[in-house]
Amino acid sequence: QVQLVESGGGLVQAGGSLRLSCAASARTFTNYAMSWFRQAPGKEREFVAQITSGGNKNYANSVKGRFTVSRDNAKNTLYLHVNSLKPEDTAVYYCNGGDYWGKGTLVTVSS
Fold it and tell me: How far is it between the farthest Cα atoms of the chain?
């Protein structure tokens, strides 16, 4: 069983940046396409970004050009660099790989 633990969330002003991390418990992490999702208050969970095991990346249109997903397979860690943050980016950000989900890290963007 793979455990995923997110960190790096917090309160930031609009225009600011954060780096979110997702630490995986197993080396099988390298075999998975890994994704970030987010869920804003009162809204459904939505896709944010994905990076495949081969390093191909996909982004939701709403974050293209502002967010960057990356992975360090040696550290079993997934990252999401979030820049030019907007109040509408406020959400709990979740890490996903296969059937596994983390518990999320909260990002709050103040205007």
Answer: 40
CA 68, 25, 41 angle in degrees (round to 5)? 50
- Mean pLDDT, to the nearest integer, of 77-106? 97
Q: Write the pLDDT tens digit of every residue in 26-83.
A: 777 888 899 999 999 999 999 999 999 999 999 999 999 999 999 999 999 999 999 9
Per-residue tokens: 31: 């075999």
Asked whether 69 and 78 are in contact (CB, 8 A), the reply is yes
Please state, in angstroms and rounded to a whole number, the distance separating the CA atoms of residues 17 and 8. 11
Spatial separation of the C-alpha atoms in residues 64 and 72, rounded to whole Å: 21
Beta-bridge mates of residue 22: 6, 78
77 CB contacts (<8 Å, ≥6 apart)?
21, 22, 23, 24, 71
Residue 7, both tokens = 């960190």
Q: Tell me the CA distances in angstroms from 104 to 8, 10, 28, one per residue in order.
A: 10, 12, 21
- CA–CA dist 45, 38 (Å, integer): 5
